[in-house]
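JOB MANIFEST
job_type = single_chain_structure
chain_count = 1
residues = 63
[input]
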Amino acid sequence: MPAKKRPQPPQPRTWRVSLIKNRMEFVGRVQAVDKASAELVAASQFELKDHERTRLFIEEASP
């Protein structure tokens, strides 16, 4: 009888982070498990202020 496989933790994915101003401005890419954690990582990595965090556009980057 084969051994049961343990569930693997979710792998981090790459997320594109943009800031919406008059036009959408590309900020960078971050590695995170989900969209909410990508926002937190982007805020700390790119030193975003609170009012800038409300204007973030985050989408999963294509491979």
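[summary]
The mean pLDDT is 93.
DSSP finds two helices and three strands in the chain.
exit_status = 0
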